[in-house]
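Entry 14. Structure prediction run on the chain below.
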Amino acid sequence: MARSILLLVAACLCLFSCKQDAPTNSSPVKGLVTPVYLNVGETPVLVSDYFYKKVKIDSLVSQGDFSALYDTEKGTINITPEKTISPLSNLQVWANGTKTDIPLYKSRRQTVAISVDDPNKKLKNPQLKGTFTNWAPTNLEYDGKAWTLSADVQPAQHQYVLIIDGKDVPDPSNPNKVSNGMGGFNSALDIKDGKDKAPFLVSTGIENG
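Output returned:
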C-alpha cells in the first residue's frame, strides 16, 4: 500500500514538473528571426517565412527611412526603402499581440541610367550589352527624346557597349573606356560603394551610318 502511494506521489510530481517545464511562450515567430537584405526598389517579404500560418498581423512600425505595407492577398510585407535609408534599419511587426523586430540591411546595389540622345528617332532599335546584362543584348526604351536603360548594379567596374545597326560601339558620352582584348574598346562604369546618387550618362548622339 505504501509503495502504491509513493508511486502515485512520484507520478504527480513528474506531471507537475512537466507542466512547469512546458513552454509558455505563445510567440507566432518561427525560430530565429533572420535579417532581410533589401533590393534597391520594393522588397516583398513572405509572412509565412517568419510566422506561423494562423498569425494575424496587427501593425507594422517602420524604424528608418522606408515604408512597409502588408498585402493580405499575397501574404507579403512589401518594403520600399528611401534613398536616405541607413545601412541597418529595423522593422517592428506586431502579430497576435507580440512584437517582432526584423533587421533590414540596405542594398549595396545602385541604379545606373544610360541615355542616348535621339530627338528625331533616327536610330532603329538600339541595344546595350555588358557585365550587368551578362553580355546579353538588351533593348533600350525610347522616351520621346532619347533611348534609355536603367539597371541595378553592385559596386564594381562594369563594362558595356551599345549595339547600333548590329555593330558594337562604345558609348560616346562616356570617356571612360577599357580595351576589350580584341582591338576595340568597351565603355566602363566605376561604381563606388556608399554613394546614394545614381550615375547618369547622356550621349550627345550617334550618327546612324
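Confidence is low (pLDDT under 50) at residues 5-24, 195-199.
Filed with the rest of this week's runs.
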